[in-house]
Amino acid sequence: MPEANITKRALGAALKTLMQTHAFHKISVGDICEQCGMHRKSFYYHFQDKYDLLNWVFYSEFMQLLDTDHQSDLWTYLRKICDYFAENRQFYINAFAIEGQNAFSDTFNETLEAILSAYFRPEIRDDEVREFYCVFLSDALRCAIVRWLRDGKPASAEQFVSLCRRTVDSSTIRNTASQSAGKSVE
After folding, report:
1. What is the CATH number of the domain that holds 17?
2. Structural domain boundaries, residue 134
3. I want to staple 157 with a disulfide (CB 3.0 to 4.6 A). Which of 81, 82, 150, 166 is the partner?
C-alpha cells in the first residue's frame, strides 16, 4: 500500500475514533493529527480541511463496499449501505448532523442520487422525470436512514431495508393502479 494511502487511512481512523465521542464541529485538524501522531503539515498535504477528510472516509470505505459486488439490485445496495452505517453508527450520526455549506447530507444525497439514477435509467427514460424521482427518493431515504440511525433501539439493517422496500413498492403499485384506472395522481 503506498505511503499516501497509509497516511490517509491513519487520519481517517483518527477522525472516526474522535467522532465516537465528539460532535464533528468540536473536532479540529489539530485533534485529528494528535490522535494519530501526525503533523498538521501531513494532514494538509492530503486534505484541504476536515470536511475533505470526512468525505474521503465516506468515499473510500463506502464506494469500495459498493464496487466489490457488481449487483444491480437497488435493495441489495441499500442493504449494504445500511449495514455499513450500522457498523459505523455514531460516526454517521455525527456526520449527518453537519449543517451548512459542507453538510455531509449533500455528499450522501449526490452519491445516492447517482446510484438511483443508474438503477432507474432503464425504466424511467425521461431524464427530467428520472431526476425528480431520484432526488425525491434520495431525500426520503436519507431522512429515513438518519431517523433509523438515531433510534435508540433500531431495527436491524435487514428489517429497515425491508420496510423501505415495501413502502416504495406499495406506493408504486398504487400509483400504477391509479394510472391504469385513468385517475390523475396529483
Report:
1. 1.10.10.60
2. 69-180
3. 82
